[in-house]
Every structure is written in structure tokens, then in C-alpha cells.
DNA sequence: AACCCGGGGAC
DNA sequence: GTCCCAGGGTT
């Protein structure tokens, strides 16, 4: 038990000297002076950071907090504005749940985030990790965070041979045993910083690791073999066609995708469902011009090859048209933006 | 427990 | 190309 207290104390000492700066983070010296972070900021950053790197999140976090400075502002926002602001960040269910959660916090919690793990866990888009992160970082509660970084650190520190994801309960027990009652918020950020900057997936910088002398993996020399993982399935390739239509007045023919499923709730170019073979499904009865080049894109679990068709459409063409001055490619998910970028080189205006 | 769900950077 | 990322929801 003496050893465990040493571990957290040594990591906090390292964090005091090496904490990375982030727009949502309260630095350790400020925290020691009683400054606490805004729970709204911590919550928003943690939602954005799910499966997403700090570098990618920064500009989105600044944009969201500029557009919606408080959870009340966000709760009052229009759905389509939030989805457009999220475009490009990926995993769009996060944006829908972000808005849902803001509205629940305002309606059921008086606009104040609950501070305990159990209450946070009930909110949309908040799972075990995010509940622990918000309760520890924003409210200094002794909750163990277990993300990809901590899984890697724990599995190396103790040479856990059980492969992920089956090892998660075991890793959670190890992480909980290390979480201190003193400065749990800084400790949570410290152990994740350690995984992100020193205990990296490939070629970890063990020579400068504050836990070097405690690490079983380091002692055995096989730290890079952890964590063990169950092999993943190969990605299939799907095919489809995207129709980029522009009306005589410059407006674009788009469609709002269904709330559930791939790119849910986002704008996109019309077309049939993607499959083993590309299917024609022109959204207007006119002469569509196929382009020589395809759009290629990779999603979480498949590769996609999209053929592009372009056409000029008459003013009486039915459908969801967005005026040229209201159309911004940055409102589109990346694959749809790729389609536009390719099509526009072939369009006259 | 297994599957679905983006996008980008490092290698 | 592969792997990874401050994971959650659904079935």
C-alpha cells in the first residue's frame, strides 16, 4: 500500500512540471489556488475528445464555446446549427447527444451539471468514462478514469496478459486502486497525459517516465507488447453514387440524412444506399454527367468508393435546395465535402 | 459480447 | 496500407 501512495504522488509531481496546456484545462498551479474549471467546458471537451485527438478538438471547442458560451445557450440552439458546427469532427451521434444533454441539464438540473458519477451517467452521451472524467476533473471527486491511455498504462505497469476488451474490468480495478483522494482531478489528467505523451502506443519514452522504476513491463523489457488485443476484422469496400445537382440560380440539391445510422442528421448529396455494387438513383430526371474521378473515403468499418454525377437542374425541380449564398461546404461531413470539391472543378459556376 | 459509428495524424 | 485516439449507444 505504501507503494501505491508513492505512485500517485510521483505522478502528480511530474504533472505539476509537465501538464500540457489545453483551452478547457485549469493548470495545476491555478487549481492549487482554488480555481476550478467550468463543468460546462469540461463536459464539452470530454464529449469532443471521445475517440478524437486533442489537436483535432481544440478549434471545435473554441468555436462551440464562442457560439454557445453557456449550457443554456447551447440548449436554446437550433439542431441544424449544432450539426453544422460539428461537421468534420465525426461520430455525429455525439453532437445529437450533446444537444440532448444540454437540454436535460437545463430542464431537469436547473442549468447546473450534477457532480456525482451516478447522476452524470444518466445523461445522454455520458458513459462510464465521461462520467468519471467530469466528476473528477470538474468536481475533484475520486473517480478512476479508464480511457485508451489508462488502459495502455495499466496493462504495461502490471503486465496484464488478458487481451482487450475483456481486460477492462481488471484494468479498471488497477486504475481505481491508484486513484488518490488528494487532487483526484489533477491525477486523472496526469495519468492520461502520461499515456498520451510518454507511454505511447509505439516506442514509449520509458527513459523519462515518472513511473519507470515501478513498471513491470519496463523491467521485463516487453512493455511495447502491451496492451494485448483481440484481432479485428478486415474492412470491406462498398460502392455508391453521389449526385451533385445545381439549379439554374446556383442553389444545390441536398438531403438531410436520417437521425440514426451513418452520418445521422447531417446534410449529404442524394444517392442510393451504398453496397457491394454502385446503384443508380438519380434524384431528378435529367441528363447526369459522370466524372472520370471517384471519391474515396474510409469509415470506421468500411472503405467507400463513390462515383460522382453532376447536372444543371431546372427551377421547377422538386427537392431540398440550399441557396448558393447559404451553402457552405464546411457544413457537410467530410465525405460529402470531398464529393463537392471534386464536382465543383467540373461545374461552370 | 458484438456491432455500429468519422476523421485525421503518426508510422 | 495499419493503428490509434480522454467511448457511447444499440441489440
UniProtKB/TrEMBL annotation:
GO biological-process terms attached to the record: base-excision repair; mismatch repair
Presence of the UniProt keyword Metal-binding in the record: yes
What is this enzyme's catalytic activity, as reactions?
Answer: Hydrolyzes free adenine bases from 7,8-dihydro-8-oxoguanine:adenine mismatched double-stranded DNA, leaving an apurinic site
Region (Disordered) location: 220-239
The UniProt keywords, alphabetically, are: 4Fe-4S, DNA damage, DNA repair, Glycosidase, Hydrolase, Iron, Iron-sulfur, Metal-binding
Q: Which cofactor does it need?
A: [4Fe-4S] cluster
Q: What is its EC number?
A: 3.2.2.31
For this chain's record, the cofactor binding note is: Binds 1 [4Fe-4S] cluster.
Database matches in InterPro entries: A/G_AdeGlyc_MutY, DNA_glycosylase, Endonuclease-III-like_CS2, Endonuclease3_FeS-loop_motif, Endouclease-III_FeS-bd_BS, HhH-GPD_domain, HhH_base_excis_C, HhH_motif
Name the Pfam families for this protein: EndIII_4Fe-2S, HHH, HhH-GPD, NUDIX_4
Top-level EC class, please?
hydrolase
Cite the PROSITE patterns for this sequence.
ENDONUCLEASE_III_1 (PS00764), ENDONUCLEASE_III_2 (PS01155)
Which GO terms fall under molecular function for this chain's record?
4 iron, 4 sulfur cluster binding; 8-oxo-7,8-dihydroguanine DNA N-glycosylase activity; adenine/guanine mispair binding; metal ion binding; oxidized purine DNA binding; purine-specific mismatch base pair DNA N-glycosylase activity
Ranges for domain HhH-GPD come to: 48-197
| UniProt biased composition (Basic residues) | 229-238
Q: Give the family this protein belongs to, as stated in its UniProt record.
A: Belongs to the Nth/MutY family.
Q: What does this protein do?
A: Adenine glycosylase active on G-A mispairs. MutY also corrects error-prone DNA synthesis past GO lesions which are due to the oxidatively damaged form of guanine: 7,8-dihydro-8-oxoguanine (8-oxo-dGTP).
Q: Which PANTHER family match?
A: ADENINE DNA GLYCOSYLASE (PTHR42944)
NCBIfam families registered for this protein in UniProt: mutY
Name this polypeptide is given: Adenine DNA glycosylase
Query: What's the source species for this entry?
Result: Halocynthiibacter styelae
Quote the gene name from the UniProt entry: mutY
Amino acid at each position: 500500500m505504501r507503494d501505491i501512495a508513492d505512485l500517485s504522488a510521483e505522478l502528480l509531481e511530474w504533472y505539476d512540471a509537465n501538464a500540457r496546456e489545453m483551452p478547457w484545462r485549469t493548470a495545476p498551479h491555478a487549481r492549487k489556488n482554488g480555481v476550478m474549471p467550468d463543468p460546462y467546458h469540461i463536459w464539452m471537451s470530454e464529449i469532443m475528445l471521445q475517440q478524437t485527438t486533442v489537436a483535432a478538438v481544440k478549434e471545435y471547442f473554441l468555436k462551440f464555446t464562442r457560439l454557445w458560451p453557456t449550457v443554456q445557450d447551447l440548449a436554446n440552439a437550433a439542431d441544424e446549427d449544432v450539426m453544422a458546427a460539428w461537421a468534420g469532427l465525426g461520430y455525429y451521434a455525439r453532437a445529437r447527444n450533446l444537444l440532448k444533454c444540454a437540454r436535460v441539464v437545463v430542464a431537469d438540473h436547473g442549468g447546473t451539471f450534477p457532480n456525482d458519477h451516478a447522476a452524470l451517467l444518466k445523461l445522454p452521451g455520458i458513459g462510464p468514462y465521461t462520467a468519471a472524467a467530469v466528476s473528477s476533473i470538474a468536481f475533484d471527486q475520486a473517480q478512476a478514469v479508464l480511457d485508451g491511455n489508462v488502459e495502455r498504462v495499466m496493462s504495461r505497469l502490471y503486465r496484464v496478459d488478458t487481451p482487450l476488451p475483456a481486460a477492462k474490468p481488471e484494468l479498471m480495478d488497477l486504475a481505481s486502486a491508484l486513484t488518490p483522494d488528494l487532487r483526484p482531478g489533477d491525477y486523472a489528467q496526469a495519468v492520461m497525459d502520461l499515456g498520451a505523451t510518454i507511454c505511447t502506443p509505439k516506442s514509449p519514452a520509458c527513459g523519462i517516465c515518472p513511473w519507470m522504476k515501478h513498471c513491470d513491463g519496463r523491467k521485463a523489457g516487453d512493455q511495447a507488447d502491451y496492451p494485448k488485443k483481440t484481432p479485428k476484422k478486415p474492412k470491406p469496400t462498398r460502392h455508391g453514387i453521389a449526385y451533385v445537382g445545381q439549379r439554374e440560380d446556383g442553389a444545390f440539391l441536398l438531403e438531410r440524412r436520417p437521425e440514426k445510422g451513418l452520418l445521422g442528421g447531417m446534410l449529404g448529396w442524394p444517392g442510393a444506399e451504398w453496397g457491394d455494387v454502385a446503384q443508380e438513383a438519380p434524384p431528378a430526371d435529367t441528363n447526369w454527367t459522370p466524372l472520370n474521378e471517384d471519391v474515396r473515403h474510409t469509415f470506421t468499418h468500411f472503405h467507400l468508393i463513390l462515383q460522382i454525377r453532376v447536372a444543371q437542374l431546372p427551377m421547377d425541380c422538386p427537392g431540398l435546395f440550399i441557396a448558393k449564398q447559404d451553402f457552405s461546404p464546411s457544413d457537410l461531413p467530410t465525405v460529402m465535402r470531398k464529393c463537392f470539391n471534386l464536382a465543383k472543378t467540373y461545374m461552370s459556376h
